[in-house]
Design goal:
- The structure holds 2 protein chains of 2 kinds.
- Chain A is mainly beta.
- In chain A, 0% of the residues lie in helices and 54% in strands.
- In chain A, the strands form 2 sheets. In chain A, strands 2, 4, 5, 9, 10 and 11 form a 6-stranded mixed sheet that branches. A 5-stranded antiparallel sheet of chain A has the order 1-3-8-7-6, with no helix packed on it.
- The mean pLDDT of chain A is 91.
- Chain B is mainly β.
- In chain B, strands 2, 4, 5, 6, 9, 10 and 11 form a 7-stranded mixed sheet that branches. Chain B has a 4-stranded antiparallel sheet with strand order 1-3-8-7, with no helix packed on it.
- In chain B, strand 4 and strand 5 form a beta hairpin.
- The model of chain B has no long low-confidence stretch (mean pLDDT 93).
- Classes of the chains: A mainly beta, B mainly beta.
- Chains A and B meet through strand 4, strand 5, strand 9 and strand 10 of A and strand 4 and strand 5 of B.
């Protein structure tokens, strides 16, 4: 089992809809969870992080964390064509030197 | 403005050459990482370093080595480049308390 798993997509949503991106992780003791956005040919950039169970909202983005079920999700409301990118989930497992593990990413396409 | 800088954006090398990829960060981060990114495989960790002169193998260290003589600089070395090392290489860094990772612009290496 991979440490961090994501559906590779592509996930296609119409403009204005809600895009829902999901991620599961294997290490139950993981503490920190991140969502990165990567445009084609560019480097990943952080858009959200979450540490506690529940929802965290930032503008059109909401991160949801459920530690009991070991999943973290990202909701994008009012999706725009400019949101079309690959979204990487990253998890910081406990202990060690805080090495962050990335999922393979979900490609999102927002259709105008 | 925080910055992670990689020495080259594009690089073409011949099979068997020794290749050096340099990464410099100006955020006084303890942790630095080298990843390679290939289509469908996501970000794969090659090596990471949590302190000067310290290094740890990641998931795919074979064929690579690293050097960290100064806190701000982390070098990736391909001892004898091979065509299967053609890839996008990404350097990243983050602190100890805040594990938001900052990425360099990437180096697209082609080995011919």
């Amino acid at each position: 089992q991979k440490e961090v798993e994501q559906n590779s997509g592509p996930l296609s949503v119409p403009e204005g809809a809600i895009a829902s991106l999901n991620c599961t992780y294997s290490d139950r003791g993981s503490q920190s969870f991140f969502w990165y956005r990567q445009y084609s040919g560019k480097s990943p950039e952080l858009i959200m992080f979450i540490y506690s169970n529940g929802d965290k909202e930032d503008g059109r983005f909401t991160a949801q964390l459920n530690k009991a079920s070991q999943y973290v999700s990202l909701l994008i409301r009012d999706s725009q064509p400019s949101d079309s990118a690959t979204y990487l989930c990253a998890v910081n497992p406990p202990g060690g030197y805080q090495k962050v593990t990335f999922g393979t990413g979900t490609k999102l396409q927002v259709i105008p | 403005d925080v910055k992670v800088t990689q020495s080259s954006r594009y690089l073409v090398k011949r099979t068997g050459e020794k290749v050096f990829l340099e990464c410099v960060q100006d955020m006084d981060h303890e942790n630095m990482f080298w990843y390679r990114q290939d289509p469908g495989l996501g970000l794969r960790l090659i090596y990471f370093s949590y302190d000067v002169k310290m290094k740890e193998k990641g998931d795919i260290p074979e064929g690579y080595s690293v050097s960290r003589e100064k806190k701000e600089r982390f070098s990736l070395i391909l001892e004898s480049a091979s065509t299967n090392q053609t890839s996008m290489y990404l350097c990243a860094s983050h602190g100890t308390l805040n594990t938001e990772a900052f990425f360099g612009q990437g180096t697209r290496l082609t080995v011919v």
